[in-house]
Amino acid sequence: MNRVFAVARPGFLTLTLVCIALALAFSLQQGSLISLWDAILVVVIGLAAHVSVNAFNEYFDFKSGLDFKTRPTPFSGGSGTLVAAPHLASAALLIAVTALLLVSAGGLYLVWQHGVALLLIGLPGVLIIYAYTQYLNRSPLACLLAPGIGFGLLMTLGAIWVFSATLSAGAWTLATIMTLLVSNLLLLNQFPDIEADASVGRRHLPIVAGRRISVRVFAVLHWLAVALLPLAVGLGWLPVWSLLGLCSLVLLVPLTRGVLRYALHIPEHVRLLGLNVAFVHLYPLLITVGLLVDR
Q1: How does pLDDT run across 67-122, given as a tens digit for each residue?
Q2: How far is Cα 137 from Cα 134, in angstroms, rounded to an integer?
Q3: In the chain, which end has fewer C-beta atoms inside a 10 angstrom radius, N or C?
Q4: How many domains would you assign to the chain?
Q5: How far is it, in rounded angstroms, from Cα 11 to Cα 51?
Q6: Beta carbons of 141 and 123 less than 8 angstroms apart
Q7: Rounded CA gap, 285 and 165, in Å?
Q8: Contact, 72 vs 80, CB < 8 A?
Q9: Average pLDDT of 20-41?
Q10: CB atoms inside a 10 Å sphere around CB 75
Q11: Per DSSP, what are the bridge partners of residue 73?
Q12: Residues sharing a CB contact under 8 Å with residue 6, sequence separation 6 or more, in sequence order
């Protein structure tokens, strides 16, 4: 039975911790006094949201037959849990629903504590969790933006709102950076499954626009995420120490070069998927360190 928890994709949950760490560091740098209970609750809600969307994705991909057609990599193609053990499908769905109920309950508590305006973040988040695999994957734009919005404009910005009770230009900048990074994380991970995804009706960007256009979009979004940082520092929205994040260019330069060079053969260069995961984690983590140094 323990194997069913693989549908939560625990190895991917580090992304949630990166988002919340960034929000926490920014709030502390701004002088906010953060309740330990609020911090713990935000982490629990964030992890539950990530578990829920992962488990729903595994369940729906199993039911559609997609997981029987993909070639899993460490970064794409599903965990293979339900393909190997179909009888665990109902348990996977239970994990997804239970985690979503936990998100909803925790979110309502935060609304009670911090104001009804938090529903502007909570309600779209719940909708994205459920709708991503079933519905949003049928629209290239929605499929591209939904993951980033979920982790950036909802999770990161929502955490800052809870911690600081205000949303400054710096907060919006960090949330936008995470939006671009996470959208790109999912975009590149779609390349190994293009044919399989198309066979079950998905219409994400690599399917609709093709590989060459998609890798150009990928490069633009990542470099835009990087360009926002010095712009925000120059405008006084973020402290100078935030520029520590630019040290991650040591990963971004070879990443974008490789993706543009091997646009038609990404599945044969899985190291690029790993390099993308590393960059998406390292860039915000270095910003987080810079924010803490500036306190």
Answers
A1: 888 888 888 777 889 999 999 999 999 999 999 999 999 999 999 999 999 999 99
A2: 7
A3: N
A4: 1
A5: 11
A6: no
A7: 23
A8: yes
A9: 96
A10: 17
A11: 76
A12: 79, 81
Task: CATH number of the domain at 218, please.
Answer: 1.10.600
Range of the domain at 252: 2-293
User: What pLDDT does 75 receive?
Assistant: 82
Task: Report how far residue 186's alpha carbon sits from residue 68's, in angstroms, rounded to the nearest whole number.
Answer: 20
pLDDT digits (tens, 9 = 90+) for 130-180: 999 889 999 999 999 999 999 999 999 999 999 999 999 999 999 999 999
pLDDT for 1 equals 54
Distance (Å) of CA 265 to CA 49, 75, 253, 269: 33, 16, 19, 7
Rounded distance between C-alpha atoms, residue 285 and residue 26, angstroms: 12
CA distance 99 to 49: 7
Lookup result for tokens 């309600």: 123
Each residue's pLDDT tens digit, 261-294: 999 999 889 999 999 999 999 999 999 999 999 9
Taking CB atoms within 8 Å and a gap of at least 24, the contacts of 209-212 are 209/140, 211/263, 211/264, 211/266, 212/263, 212/264
Question: Residues for the chain: how many in total?
Answer: 295
**Which two structure tokens, joined as six digits, stand for 10?**
């625990």
Rg (CA), the chain: 19
Residue 57 CB contacts under 8 Å (≥ 6 apart), including other chains: 78, 132, 133
Q: What's the chain's average pLDDT?
A: 95
Distance of alpha carbon 195 from alpha carbon 208, whole angstroms = 11
Could you tell me how far CA 10 lies from the centroid of its own chain? 14
